[in-house]
Amino acid sequence: MKYASTTLVFVVSALLALGLVMLYSAMMFHRGASFWGSQLLWCLIGLAVCAITAKLDYQILKKISLPMLIVAFVLLVAVLIPGIGMKINGARRWLQLPGTTFQPSEFAKIALIIALAHYCEKKGRKMHSFKYGLLLPGLGIGIFLGLIFLEPDWGSTALMAAVCGLMLFLAGTKFRYMVLPVITLIPVAGYLLSQNTVRLNRIMSWLDPEGTKQGVGYQAWQSLIALGSGGTTGLGLGNGRQKLGFVPEHQTDFIFSVIGEELGLIATMAVVVAFALFVICGAFIALKSSDVFGFLLGSGLTLLIGFQAFINIGVVTSTLPNKGLPLPFISRGGTNLVVMLFCVGVLLSIARFSRSDESVRSSKLGDSEGLSPFSAG
């Protein structure tokens, strides 16, 4: 477990450092851009949150799972109310705070994962039934995903649907119960897509990137040019050209293209390997957890970060249509960065109180017995 935790910390540290360096490079020729200092501040706040969370027993999250879920629900409703939620580019995803903005959907992601892990542990073997394994949790998940969808944030909705679905499967929900809802949602998603011109155009652009490179596919096409021009070793740090207005969101969703252009294929492959190592370490920590809650919580948080990285890289390389999700630990965005580092802190806490380190909790809580069937054997 020590090796998994050490590797996890090393990987996250390397990604954070790379992110700060690339964001500084991205703003070099943009006068008046002050987001690097803000990102550094959010990084320090996130690291503090990570350190505190890692020191605490993750079991505390059970006690606050319901309050967190209620707060997340209130925030998701508030952001949709005109005059409260900020409307940017046709979407209401942010709340204005003194000196900064806050994205409620990021908080809702971890609140939902924590609450779902707690629910699944409490129901235990009842998760094999349709009522407790799919119907009840599905209704709760549907409410939160519906609010995120209305912002609209289709990328986060799809991301959390996949994460929650896999968590239910790992908790014991039978696969045959999940097939019908998925089949039902496919035509519904297709209809909604056909009624949304912006996202339909994104799909068409993804299918024909060259034919739409002067229109809706401009950003994706320029991203591919950046990746291609970087070659194997890149043009050199700070020498990228596509960030000079050709790739509009180069500091957020498309920061991976800046890495590819300036540092080359070697760096982009290193980022992919880093996220693969993160997923492997997270999965190992979850499997070695001392209880069902830790297993599901660790799995959910690992899937959240792993899927988000996979989707972002897929979008930048035109493997997937544009989803608007940032690259964890690297892209600009304070709320997302703090949430991601909170997830890392929880994973480290699960590792501290794993089966191999069970004596740590036993000595603190005076409980010499295993916490669950996970601690047996």
Strand content: under 5%
Instruction: Indicate the radius of gyration in whole angstroms.
Output: 21 Å
Biggest sheet, spatial arrangement of strands: 1-2-3
Low-confidence parts lasting 5 or more residues at pLDDT below 50?
359-377
Summarize model confidence as the mean pLDDT. Answer: 87
Distance between the termini: 17 Å
Provide the succession of SSEs.
HHHEEEHHHHHHHHHH
**DSSP strand count:** 3
In short:
The protein has 377 residues and is mainly alpha-helical.
Description:
- Helices cover 67% and strands 4% of the residues.
- The protein is mainly α.
- It has one domain.
- The longest helix is centred in the last third of the chain and has 33 residues, at 255-287.
- It is globular and about 55 Å long.
Properties at a glance:
377 residues; mainly alpha
Topology of helices and strands:
Layout lengths: L1 H25 L8 H21 L4 H19 L6 E4 L2 E7 L2 E3 L1 H20 L6 H20 L4 H18 L3 H20 L2 H11 L10 H13 L24 H33 L4 H25 L17 H19 L5 H8 L12
Antiparallel strand pairs: 1-2, 2-3
Helix pairs in contact: 1-2, 1-10, 1-12, 2-12, 3-4, 4-5, 4-6, 4-11, 5-6, 6-11, 9-10, 10-11, 11-12
